Amino acid sequence: MTPNGGGPTLLYYMYRSATALVAPFAFRKVAARLAAHGVTAERQQERNGHATLPRPDGQVVWLHGASVGESLAALTLIKRLGEHLPHAHFLLTSGTATAQQVVERRMPPRCRHQFAPLDAAGPVRRFLSHWRPSAGIFVESELWPVTLASTRATGAKLALVNARLSDRSVARWRAKAPTALFVMEQFSLFLTQNQHISDSLLELGAHPDRVRDGGNLKAGSDPLPADEALLVQMHDALGSRPAWVASSTHIGEEQPVLTAHKALLEHHPDLCLVLTPRHPERGDDVADLIAKAGLTYARRSKDELPTEKTQVYLADTMGELGTWYALSPIVFLGGSLEPIGGHNPFEVARAGAAVITGPGYHNFTETFPPMIAAKGAVEIHDADQLSQAVSNWLTQPDTLHQAQQAAGEFATQQSAVLDGLIEMLIDHLDLDPKNA
């Protein structure tokens, strides 16, 4: 049962005061992180709410995605919304330099990017004063009270989409029930990934009429771009050799992947593993692991190509996953052998590949079970099962082809669900297609 009330609480005012005090220190920390990724001093000031782009005339719809995955989901929404709102402009914010680098290469027309303001009164006030958004759509797993309350106070309606809160986050908010209710009241619509998240939001005070099943927005994302020239180079370098991809791996996952590959080489001696760590800056560490495993390797970050003796190709670069997915029909998705939450299988399926995942895909619980049931993906739990899954597909091309088809069909079916969600967003956020 939804509690009554929902006004600002003493805890909210305390948080607002505290964040105002610590904002200068927080800015130094985030600015240093951005600078380390080559972001200019001028653009660092966007985190303080200082815009570096002019506001376009007319309706501005603001979408926020915390990091790469959320920002790419936001781009999917922008593309679909842009088809229904021909006069609207879109502002996409993110919190990381990696997300900025990825999305700025893929932004559709009438869209611009800025870094999100810190969740403090000053930065948020400056941000809202400049951009004056008509609505805010948050593709987030965190809730920022000052940003949400300040934006809603301007009259802009808010939606939380792809809503995903960890059990730990829900427990923290549950301990602050009146403030949680106040935060929930800021939203006009919640589009959740699964029933568990819906139940959590209702428990925190979300109004039942505002909570809807939204599936996973990442299902509607465009295929990742592939570098055709690099793809030709890789095909020429590999020749007739088969390859498989281990993508977006995290600490603790490369070792079982390499163990699986060594086992595969016993029966498939010409097999090449394309290993793409989630964080390319870990390239040196991963290279050491490959060497300690007694495997030969070449590195993409050094502009090397595989030779006939290369057993592992270390793709330690950013923005090239689409190329690796297009290179091989077999992809193991990392972030799943460790309890990370998994990564986006729709990107793999749209590239024409079949998916292998570990059990730790809790961020995609609405996606992987039906995809596995459709035989577009398989679940493994250790290195032995991983090597067996890859070997099965290598030795049974008809089964592999069926898995590729099933993965692609599943992604297409899930994408079709998004059309209804766009209409729902436009309706609940009072976005007028005729507003110029």
Structural class: alpha/beta
Output the strand order for the largest sheet: 3-2-1-4-5-6-7
What is the helix tally?
18
Helix share, percent: 40-55%
Principal-axis shape equals globular
Average pLDDT reading: 93
Number of strands: 14
Uncertain segments = none
Largest sheet descriptor: 7 strands, parallel
> What is the C-alpha radius of gyration, as a whole number of Å?
23 Å
Strand content: 15-25%
End-to-end C-alpha gap: 41 Å
Structure, described:
The structure is a single chain. The protein has 436 residues and is of the alpha/beta class. The chain is 46% helix and 16% strand. It has 18 helices and 14 strands. It has helices spanning 10-36, 41-44, 68-84, 97-103, 121-131, 145-153, 167-174, 177-184, 195-204, 228-238, 254-267, 283-292, 321-327, 345-350, 368-373, 383-395, 397-416, 418-428; strands at 60-65, 89-94, 111-115, 135-139, 157-163, 187-192, 211-213, 243-249, 272-277, 297-299, 312-314, 330-333, 354-357, 377-379. Strands 3-2-1-4-5-6-7 form a seven-stranded parallel β-sheet, sandwiched between helices. It has a seven-stranded parallel β-sheet with strand order 10-11-9-8-12-13-14, with helices on both faces. Helix 6 links the parallel strand 4 and strand 5 (157-163). Helix 3 crosses helix 18 and helix 10 crosses helix 13. The chain is globular. The protein starts with 9 loop residues before the first helix and ends in an 8-residue tail after the last helix. The mean pLDDT is 93.
